[in-house]
Structure formats: structure tokens, C-alpha cells
UniProtKB/TrEMBL annotation:
<feature type="transmembrane region" description="Helical">
    <location>
        <begin position="134"/>
        <end position="154"/>
    </location>
</feature>
<keyword id="KW-0812">Transmembrane</keyword>
<dbReference type="InterPro" id="IPR050367">
    <property type="entry name" value="APC_superfamily"/>
</dbReference>
<feature type="transmembrane region" description="Helical">
    <location>
        <begin position="412"/>
        <end position="433"/>
    </location>
</feature>
<feature type="transmembrane region" description="Helical">
    <location>
        <begin position="41"/>
        <end position="65"/>
    </location>
</feature>
<protein>
    <submittedName>
        <fullName>APC family permease</fullName>
    </submittedName>
</protein>
<feature type="transmembrane region" description="Helical">
    <location>
        <begin position="7"/>
        <end position="29"/>
    </location>
</feature>
<feature type="transmembrane region" description="Helical">
    <location>
        <begin position="86"/>
        <end position="104"/>
    </location>
</feature>
<keyword id="KW-1133">Transmembrane helix</keyword>
<feature type="transmembrane region" description="Helical">
    <location>
        <begin position="206"/>
        <end position="224"/>
    </location>
</feature>
<keyword id="KW-0472">Membrane</keyword>
<keyword id="KW-1003">Cell membrane</keyword>
<feature type="transmembrane region" description="Helical">
    <location>
        <begin position="371"/>
        <end position="392"/>
    </location>
</feature>
<feature type="transmembrane region" description="Helical">
    <location>
        <begin position="288"/>
        <end position="313"/>
    </location>
</feature>
<feature type="transmembrane region" description="Helical">
    <location>
        <begin position="439"/>
        <end position="458"/>
    </location>
</feature>
<feature type="transmembrane region" description="Helical">
    <location>
        <begin position="245"/>
        <end position="268"/>
    </location>
</feature>
<dbReference type="Pfam" id="PF13520">
    <property type="entry name" value="AA_permease_2"/>
</dbReference>
Length: 463
């Protein structure tokens, strides 16, 4: 008799990481990414540079995840070697990063649905925020779609992972078709000028454009760390392979972004592409392939876009609730966040906390997407930096710890990864730096810190 699969498979974990990294921005807001870089070539270089820098960070997780195979990821690693305040800081900022992306996706889904069905943006807007109108009908749609993700994950991580694998397969199939047809219409002259200053963006040189993309990149590559959040459910995966899947997912996402930026940039003059309405890549195909082929490609791209969006949304919803659950188990959040559903064994209070943030997103509008991107980037690099430090310390305090996958070269790579995490954080928070999050981002950052202090004091009193 064939044994029934238990837990998550290798492809489930790959789907969780890759699907969380490759969301919707590559298609729906491609023009904004090109604007942030000053063209497809600086955008490509910024993301390629970021992917190379993140490999050492991913290698740290590749060693830590199978060595400490418990849910919580960064929280579990910090708890193993650091004090509770450091554990709380790591978890709280990772939660901020995950929730920022959950918000991002809940806004983006409204934006895309609004372009597929323009009638839902009819009538007078309820309000405007950062130059974007928000309509009551799009809020209803956003909340309804949020409920789909919530219900899927309410019934257990295997259900969420199965949904994730389906979305990842759809994304891969659709995006391959998009790249092939973009390259079929490619003309290298469309990539020129190599760099141009874009109105509304602060960069003035190609290097500033590259580092602007570098500042946004942690948000777009962050999905690889969703894999350790679900490591306890990976019973069908060899521990050594568990480490490898993290790095494979990251490199695959890097190749994906490079392929999209260059193929789309070469398919149509990029200075015209940046002025297209969302969803940009779909509209690009309608422009370069008039008639039925363009219409078919428009819908294929939309399906791949929605698959990517739901994959990221689902992956970070799962990861966000798991990190809150891990923090409660570590004793740095109130124990109510560690409560499990009696039937499905899901952390339902943590799930509900993240669910509330999903419902907030549709009220905000697309004007805050850049703020959320940089806010999540800053949260990720704080958590990743602490994970790198945890690995360095574990090498000294627990040299005999079983490590199914071990980074060669001692602590050189973890130290290198930590330094880059610090540099990336400085790029996000220092005024004048290309990746600076701005007053809006700093305000949200401060509010999240204040909320964290309140939660930490409450958990201290309970303890």
C-alpha cells in the first residue's frame, strides 16, 4: 500500500519560499520598479546585486533551519542563544515585515481586480490617500478575497501549502510564456537609454537608481525565510535538503526577476512602458501583439499575476502567524498567541491578528505600496542580521550541535551576511540614502516599535 504523504514535501517548501518571493510587482507594478531604478538595466543590476548579497544570508538559514527544526525561524534561533529582549526584537520586526507584505498584497489585489473589472471603481470614491482613490466596492472585494486566504490556512498548514504549490505552478507556467513572447518581440534599442532620471523619484545617477532598487529588494526576496517558519511540518524532507531548498528558492527568484526586467524592457521602449496603466505587463502585451494573441497573452499574464499575488499573500500570512506563535512559545508575547485550534492545530489567535491587518489593507490604497515595501525591507534585515549573529554565536557555544548542512569557511560567510544586513538597514532609515523610507515609513516604523513595547511589557507582567 502506498504510504500517504505526511507533512510538507520538498516542492511544498520550494513553493512556499519561491511563491512568497515572486509576488505581483513583477507584472502589475513593473513600471514603478523601472521608475525606482531609472530603467530596466539599473533595476536588473540592483536586484541581481541584492540576490548575490542575500545568498550568504540564505546560507545562514540553510544551516540554522535543519539544525534547529522548530517553527518560528528567526525567533527560534534568537531564543537559543540570546536574551528575551533580543528574541523579542528579532520576532517583532520580522512580524512587521511579514504583515507589511500582507498589507501590500491586500492592496495590490484590489488594484488588479479593479483593472480587470473597471466597473467596481465606478462612482464616487470613499476617500483618497497618497494620491490614490479608494472605493467602497474595492474594499468589499479585498475583504472577501482576504477571507479566502484566511479560511484556507485556518484548516492547517498542509492546506495552505497545497494552495501555495498550485499557485506557484500557475505562476511559473504563465511567467515562462510571458518571457518567451516578450523575447520574441525583443529589440535591444528598447533598453536605451541605459539610465534616465524619472519624475517623482529622488535618484539622479545610475548608481543611485541601482541602490534604490537595492533598498527595495529585501521586500521582494524575503520569501526564502518563510521556509523555516514551517520546518516542523517538513517531515518528508531530508534535513540536508531542507537547507538546500532555501538557497535554491532564492536563486530561482533572482533569475526570475532578471528575466522579467530584461525581457519586458527589451520588448517595448521602457520610457513608454513606465507610463502604462496597471497591470503593466498585461497591457504591454496588448500593445505589442494587437488582436487575439495580445488578448490571450493579456489574460495569461493576469492569471500568472494573480497566482503570484495569492502565493505571496498566502506565504506571508502563514509566516506572519507562525512568527507570532513562535514568539508566544518563547515567552516574549502573551501566551494567548500560542493557543492552537483544538481540531486543526493552527495558531488561531496569531492567525486572527494577521487577519485583522489583511482587512486594513483595502482601506489604504496603492499610494502606500512603496512605503510598505521599504518598511518590510527594514524589518527583514533586522531579523536576518540577528539570525546571522545567532549562527556565529552557536558555532562557539554549541560546536557539537548536529548540523545536517554546514556552511564552509567557519564564520566568514555569516559575518559577511551580518555586515550587509546592517548596511541595508542604514540604506532604509538614513535620510538622503537611495533606499530611505521617508517620513511616512519612519512614522509607521515608530508606531510599530511603540506597539511592540506595549506587548512586551504586558507579556513581562504576565510572566
Amino acid at each position: 500500500m502506498k504510504r500517504k504523504k505526511q507533512g510538507l514535501s520538498f516542492f511544498d517548501l520550494f513553493s512556499l519560499g519561491f511563491g512568497a518571493m515572486v509576488g505581483v510587482g513583477w507584472s502589475a507594478t513593473l513600471n514603478n520598479l523601472m521608475k525606482n531604478g531609472g530603467g530596466p538595466i539599473p533595476a536588473t543590476l540592483g536586484f541581481a546585486f541584492a540576490a548575490a548579497v542575500f545568498i550568504p544570508v540564505a546560507l545562514c538559514f540553510a544551516e540554522l533551519a535543519p539544525a534547529i527544526p522548530v517553527s518560528g525561524g528567526v525567533v527560534a534561533y534568537a531564543r537559543r542563544v540570546f536574551s528575551k529582549p533580543v528574541t523579542f526584537i528579532a520576532g517583532w520586526f520580522m512580524a512587521m515585515a511579514y504583515i507589511s507584505i500582507v498589507l501590500w498584497e491586500s492592496i495590490a489585489i484590489n488594484d488588479i481586480i479593479g483593472y480587470i473589472f473597471p466597473s467596481i471603481k465606478g462612482g464616487s470614491p470613499m476617500h483618497s490617500l497618497v494620491g490614490e482613490n479608494i472605493y467602497g466596492s474595492t474594499i468589499i472585494v479585498g475583504i472577501a478575497l482576504s477571507l479566502v486566504v484566511i479560511v484556507i490556512n485556518w484548516r492547517g498548514i498542509e492546506k495552505g501549502a497545497a494552495f501555495q504549490s498550485t499557485m506557484t505552478f500557475s505562476l511559473l507556467a504563465g511567467s515562462v510564456i510571458c518571457v518567451i513572447f516578450a523575447l520574441a518581440h525583443a529589440d535591444l534599442s528598447n533598453l536605451l537609454p541605459v539610465y534616465s532620471q524619472v519624475e517623482g523619484k529622488s535618484h539622479t545617477t545610475i548608481w543611485a537608481g541601482i541602490f534604490t532598487m537595492f533598498g527595495l529588494a529585501p521586500s521582494y526576496f524575503s520569501g526564502f525565510d518563510t521556509i523555516p517558519q514551517s520546518v516542523e511540518s517538513a517531515s518528508d524532507v531530508n534535513k540536508k535538503k531542507l537547507g538546500k531548498v532555501i538557497v535554491i528558492a532564492l536563486i530561482s527568484a533572482g533569475v526570475f526577476y532578471v528575466a522579467i526586467f530584461l525581457s519586458a524592457g527589451a520588448a517595448y521602449p521602457w520610457l513608454d512602458t513606465i507610463n502604462m496603466n496597471r497591470p503593466v505587463l498585461s497591457n504591454l502585451f496588448a500593445e505589442i501583439y494587437p488582436g487575439i494573441l495580445g488578448t490571450v497573452l493579456w489574460y495569461i499574464c493576469i492569471v500568472a499575476t494573480l497566482a503570484g499575488l495569492f502565493g505571496t499573500w498566502n506565504g506571508f500570512y502563514m509566516a506572519g502567524s507562525r512568527v507570532l506563535y513562535g514568539m508566544a512559545k518563547a515567552g516574549v508575547l502573551p501566551q494567548i498567541f500560542a493557543k492552537e485550534h483544538p481540531k486543526y492545530k493552527t495558531p488561531y489567535i496569531a492567525n486572527l491578528f494577521v487577519a485583522v491587518t489583511m482587512f486594513i489593507g483595502p482601506f489604504l490604497g496603492a499610494g502606500v505600496l512603496d512605503i510598505l515595501s521599504v518598511l518590510s525591507s527594514s524589518g527583514f534585515v533586522i531579523g536576518w542580521g540577528i539570525a546571522c549573529l545567532a549562527l556565529i554565536r552557536l558555532r562557539k557555544t554549541e560546536p557539537d550541535l548536529e548540523r545536517p548542512y554546514k556552511i564552509p569557511g567557519g564564520t566568514v560567510i555569516p559575518k559577511f551576511a551580518f555586515v550587509f544586513c546592517v548596511l541595508m538597514l542604514l540604506n532604509c532609515i538614513i535620510p538622503g540614502m537611495p533606499g530611505y523610507m521617508g517620513i511616512g515609513g519612519l512614522t509607521a516604523f515608530a508606531v510599530w516599535m511603540a506597539l511592540g513595547i506595549i506587548f512586551y511589557k504586558i507579556s513581562n507582567r504576565i510572566r
